[in-house]
Amino acid sequence: MGAVLPDGPPQKERNAMNTVSRSLGRRSALCALALAGTLMMAPVSATAVDAKAAGLGAACAVSNLVYGPVKLLYAMFGGLTAGFGYALTAGDIDVARVILDTSVNGDYVIEPAHMRGEKSLQFIGSPRNVAAPPQDDWSTADSSGF
């Protein structure tokens, strides 16, 4: 016995599908040509993009694909560490603040100025100046009242 082949769509449906796919292809080609023509007629800006600036922008974009997630992980784990530091020092906010500031502050994005050396890149942020708590100085008191 021979293999039984499915009949498939009737001839009318097959012709209709071919007509639809051909008309869709023609529409797509027509839209692509119209878009290309529109772009060619658009005014060109007065300053041309030089290759050096484009390369610098591309280098920044590629380096940010690595630098950004690493900085975010560092900041996230710094936040967790600051929380542990706060808990383990019985609520000493100064310890937690220093850990949090150094991990969360800093640059999250590499800019072209960083690549050109015009601006320094700070991965580890600088802590804010934490004011020392006021000290009770009894030696300067005129009289204690006793």
Question: What's the structural blueprint in terms of helices and strands?
Answer:
Blueprint: H1 11-41, H2 51-88, H3 93-104, H4 112-116
Helix pairs in contact: 2-3
Described by strand count, sense and barrel closure, the largest sheet is: none
Separation, N- and C-terminal Cα atoms: 121 Å
Rounded average pLDDT: 77
Number of helices: 4
Topology, number of strands: 0
Structural class estimated from helices and strands: mainly alpha
Uncertain segments are none
Considering the chains and any ligands shown, give keywords for the structure.
about 60% helix; mainly alpha; about 150 residues
Description:
There is one protein chain. This protein is an all-alpha fold. The chain has helices at residues 11-41, 51-88, 93-104, 112-116. The longest helix is centred in the middle third of the chain and has 38 residues, at 51-88.
Summary, kept brief:
The chain has 146 residues and is mainly alpha-helical. The protein has 4 helices and no strands.
